[in-house]
Amino acid sequence: MIAVTGATGHLGHLVVDSLLSKLPADQIVAVVRTPAKAAALAAKGVAVREGDFSKPETLSAAFVGVEKLLLVSSSEVGQRIAQHQAVIDAAKAAGVKFIAYTSLLKADTATMQLATEHVATEKYLQASGVAFALLRNGWYTENHMAALAPSVAHGAIIGAAGEGRFATAPRADYAEAAAVVLATAGHENKIYELAGDTSYNYAELAHEAAEVSGKPVAYARLSEAEYAKALEGFGLPPAAAAVVANADASAAKGELDSTSGDLARLIGRATVPWQNTVAETLKQA
């Protein structure tokens, strides 16, 4: 059986959906913090099991009979190292033979704050003795879409990435790649740098948003500190604002751009162009 952690999350549920197109439902295990929230998956025949990263005692039973596991990185920044290690330990003890982990693009060389916990997890997994695959995910196109409509309304996209480029793809593309790695052979001890086929900077994003919306949109270039302060003004907690602003500053150094092509090769097609997602987002606004 194949298990996916965080199976009701933004990425996890898309991985399960993709697996359902490749495997019988009874071969898939959805590991979730709150099983009641996974009723839709259970209705499809997927086995739903409780598995809370912060409660290691729930993990052993979650992984019984599982051969391959996707460890979707926790969303709780600052707690992820201990949480991920608990998952890896429980999976190894349960006899899981292969663990794929959703890491960060260029994690081993990245300077951004988000990289620290990913690197620690990668090293722990590599030292575990369990066969692994590191799925180093780049930015999701959706990361820039949540604020796109308000940005168009105000005529400005703000950020601290300078001219830095983002090689993004939709979550669904990354999810499909993860499903391929889980459902097919030959991915043991591989590292994949996953990113979209095409990239953009904020000025290009603003131009595209203007073209689609028919309204003037410019890129307002801020410093890392200025951007963090602006995000706090929008209601983001200071710690979260600092992490987001730091990621932008790291993008200015090329850390979220890539021409690896690994994502397209895994899914067997071109990644969805970011322009498509911009058009869909503004159409729905």
Automatic annotation (TrEMBL):
GO molecular function, one term: NAD(P)H dehydrogenase (quinone) activity
SUPFAM superfamilies, sorted: NAD(P)-binding Rossmann-fold domains
Entry keywords, A to Z: Oxidoreductase
Keyword Cytoplasm: no
Cited InterPro entries: NAD(P)-bd_dom, NAD(P)-bd_dom_sf, NmrA-type_oxidoreductase
Domain of life per record: Bacteria
EC number per UniProt: 1.6.5.2
NAD(P)-binding domain ranges (all copies): 6-182
Coiled coil: none
Keyword RNA-binding: no
UniProt-recorded name of the protein: SDR family oxidoreductase
The organism of origin for this protein: Granulicella cerasi
